[in-house]
Design a protein that fits this description.
The protein is α/β, with parallel strands linked by helices. Helix content is about 50%, strand content about 15%. Bound molecules: (S)-3-Hydroxyhexanoyl-CoA (3H9). (S)-3-Hydroxyhexanoyl-CoA binds near residues 69, 71, 83 and 142.
Length: about 700
């Protein structure tokens, strides 16, 4: 007979003969918030004091074991008991305590298991210490106990990659002692009985010694210095693991705790946690939650880089694709690109090799638009020309079945105008993918005036299916991302005209954390794209605006479009990349023609001006309602534009500067160029009432 009682709302104890089962029930992911910590502490203390209890097993209710500490508590005043203290008390118990894990055991969840005296995984389990992705380190014993079980190389890899380790690998590495099948409660009972009878060996992890491995530590330190010089927590992780190999557990835990608190105090931790919740919050809007239309087959118009990338993304998600091109040559090129993409996915381990052929077989190439009659969604991905797009949508209107969704992958154009070319604008929206579309995670879901709610919901459902981060955007030139980009892109050009070199601008921004500076990005994307865009807008150029495209235009006139032509701002020869020596004279001539006396900029000035420009336009995008919340802008920049994740996004970063300082900066810059530098009204209001973008995220 079992006898169950609640320790508190989230923790219960079930007695089965001389064994006890502790159940953690804190949906959705059993995070160890204060009530869980308190309940666990009480339950274990009570059972350990009971001489009739021969073994204790801890398991989780619901879809997963414990996914870690409760991230929502971070940055707030800590509430006792602290997680490491609870775990130390569990490890110290006289009664054997074992853990049974299912789903994912992550961070503080795995650390709980490491502090118990044996660990059993249920098939399908994944374990990991992903704290590094939050700017933290495993702070409840993970850096000290894991190397005692697995050795240093495995612990370094687990803590620095944060990856979710499959159960079999965890078993082989010594993280878990057994792998079993069954329901968590049943396996927990059997495990407790085995521990009580001695069939399952139990021991304290802290009693084990770490095998020293100086070479692995040195090599990792050196690699991190080169690859992650700006991040704080990875370096601290290595320090902690080194200490684990040199000192007894108690001292190591003290060191780890201090290092964890240091990480907790960094702005990187705040930025990365903003990114964690932002990624989830973008789809936490009523429009995303409505009923979606079923999508079983996708049509794609255009086999260029974008069309092929979108087709690849759909195929990898198991969605059949019909791809239409106007000429056989274009179709062949598209098929070749998709085949290459799929082979790349196999090589990178994204697709099992035995699924390659079946995945490619879901692609149906066609030269007839009429073949799109049976698809549920069409994504048009031809070049940016309004007349061409209108013609295509006019045809689609006649071809597509009732209820089919018609989407444009336009990156700038007016989706209302495109929708008006059909008799069913409610079925039209923008789905703006980012190149390469099978790799980049951002999808802007552009909602036009007449787009139906279930069409918007389908956009979000598609993003989820393609494992993308779908962000709602309103209609304007460039939507969220490209509108902001075209503004701060000008500042990069002004900096060069006024005295910085393209290389200095790039290296200053790489020093801030961008993977690549704007000129390298331009070379990679193709300078001809911006050139075409500037020509498109030439007739409507504002005479008061300082022209930013002069240098880039001269470069393009030489036929230098960046990487694909071997030359742009840089020269590309194999792996060798160096500044293009012919660009400096071009810049010089443009400065002379504009009567500019070049001046020196420090890297900090470059970063300040560039970031202030980005923040200004990002603020206006929120003010105009193109983005619903500041966090939507942040996620667009993080997932589509290489913004450094540890800085959280431009508007999260803006809060670290403060609205008043931003206004002061813009007013200062405006003395040179009052047209470009204008204080957004929203920023002025925020400066006056002392509010932040974070406040707006909370309110929305
Ligand atoms: C840590 O443990 C520190 C310790 O070392 C030391 C402490 C002293 N807390 O992702 P999903 C929410 S640091 C609070 O959509 P999935 C999430 O926001 C922690 N909330 O589901 C979402 O809420 P909503 C180390 C959390 O099935 C809901 O749960 N651990 C937490 O795609 C569902 O999440 C990690 O970093 C949390 N820890 O993926 C693991 N986790 O529905 C972080 C999730 O309101 N978590 N939520 O939007 C994950 O990686 C994934 O959530 C997981 C499930 C793989 C577990």
């Amino acid at each position: 007979m079992s006898d169950t009682h609640q320790v508190n709302d989230l923790i219960s104890i079930e007695m089965e003969g001389d064994t006890a089962l502790i159940r953690i029930d804190n949906p959705p992911v059993n995070a160890t918030g204060q009530v869980v910590r308190q309940g666990l502490d009480e339950a274990v203390a009570r059972l350990d004091a009971d001489a009739a209890v021969k073994a204790i097993a801890i398991y989780g209710a619901g879809r997963t074991f414990v996914a870690g500490a409760d991230i929502k508590e971070f940055g707030k005043p800590p509430q006792p008991p602290a997680l490491p203290e609870v775990y130390d008390r569990i490890e110290a118990c006289e009664t054997p305590v074992v853990t049974v894990m299912h789903g994912t055991a992550l961070g503080g969840g795995l650390e709980l298991a490491l502090a118990t005296h044996a660990r059993v995984g249920i098939d399908g389990l994944r374990v990991g210490l992903p704290e590094v992705a939050l700017g933290l380190l495993p702070g409840a014993g993970g850096t000290q106990r894991l190397p005692r079980l697995t050795g240093i190389p495995f612990a370094l890899d687990a803590c620095l990659s944060g990856r979710h380790v499959p159960a079999q690998e965890a078993l082989e590495a010594g993280v878990i002692d057994r792998l079993e099948a069954g329901e968590p409660r049943d396996v927990a009972l059997k495990t407790a009985q085995d521990a009580a009878s001695g069939v399952l060996k139990t021991r304290r992890t802290g009693d084990l010694e770490v095998t020293p491995d100086e070479a692995a530590l040195r090599e990792t330190e050196e690699k991190l210095r080169q690859t992650q010089p700006l991040l704080f927590s990875p370096h601290k992780i290595v320090e902690c693991i080194r200490v684990a190999s040199e000192t007894p557990l108690a001292e190591g835990l003290k060191f780890e705790r201090a290092a964890f608190m240091e990480c907790m105090d960094t702005p990187q931790r705040a930025g990365l946690i903003h990114a964690f919740f932002g990624e989830r919050a973008v789809s936490n809007i009523p429009e995303a939650k409505g009923e979606a239309r079923p999508i079983d087959k996708v049509g794609i118009i255009g086999g260029g880089t974008m069309g092929s990338g979108i087709a690849t993304a759909c195929l990898l998600a198991g969605l059949p694709v019909r791809m239409v091109e106007v000429a056989q040559e274009g179709l062949d090129r598209g098929i070749a690109t998709i085949t290459g993409n799929i082979d790349g996915a196999v090589k990178r381990g994204k697709l099992p090799a035995d699924k390659r052929d079946a995945t490619l077989a879901m692609l149906e190439p066609s030269l007839q638009m009429e073949d799109l009659a049976d698809v549920d969604l069409v994504v048009e991905a031809v070049f940016e020309d309004m007349d061409v797009k209108k013609e295509i949508f006019g045809k689609l209107d006649k071809i597509c079945k009732p209820g089919a969704i018609m989407a444009s992958n336009t990156s700038y154009l007016d989706v209302n105008e495109i929708a008006a070319a059909t008799s069913r604008p409610a079925d039209v929206l923008g789905l703006h993918f980012f190149s390469p579309a099978h790799v980049m995670r951002l999808l802007e879901i552009v909602v036009a005036d007449k787009t139906a709610p279930d069409v918007v919901a389908t956009g979000f459902a598609l993003a989820k299916r393609l494992k993308k981060v779908g962000v709602r955007a309103g209609v304007c030139d460039g939507f969220i991302g490209n509108r902001i980009l075209s503004h701060y892109g000008k500042e990069a050009a002004y900096l060069v005209l006024d005295g910085a070199s393209p290389q200095q601008v790039d290296s200053a921004l790489e020093g801030f954390g961008f993977a690549m500076g704007p000129h390298k990005v331009g070379d990679l994307a193709g300078l001809d794209i911006g050139w075409a865009n500037r020509k498109r807008k030439a007739d409507n150029r504002d005479p008061n605006e300082r022209y930013a495209g002069a240098v880039a235009d001269r470069i393009c006139e030489q036929g230098w479009f960046g990487r694909k032509t071997g030359k742009g701002y840089y020269v590309y020869e194999g792996k060798d990349v160096r500044p293009n020596p012919d660009v400096a004279p071009i810049i010089e001539r443009e400065r002379q023609e504009a009567g500019i006396t070049p001046r020196e900029f420090t890297d900090q000035e470059i970063v300040d001006r560039y970031m202030t420009a980005m923040i200004s336009e990002a603020a206006r995008v929120v003010e105009d309602g193109i983005a619903k919340r500041p966090l939507d802008v942040d996620m667009v920049l993080l997932f589509g534009y290489g913004f450094p994740r540890f800085r959280g996004g431009p508007l999260h970063y803006a809060d670290t500067i403060g609205a008043a300082e931003l206004v002061r900066r813009i007013e200062g810059y405006a003395q040179e160029d009052p047209h470009y530098w204008q204080v957004p009204d929203i920023l002025r209001r925020m400066a006056a009432d002392g509010t932040t973008f974070a406040d707006m995220n909370k309110g929305a």
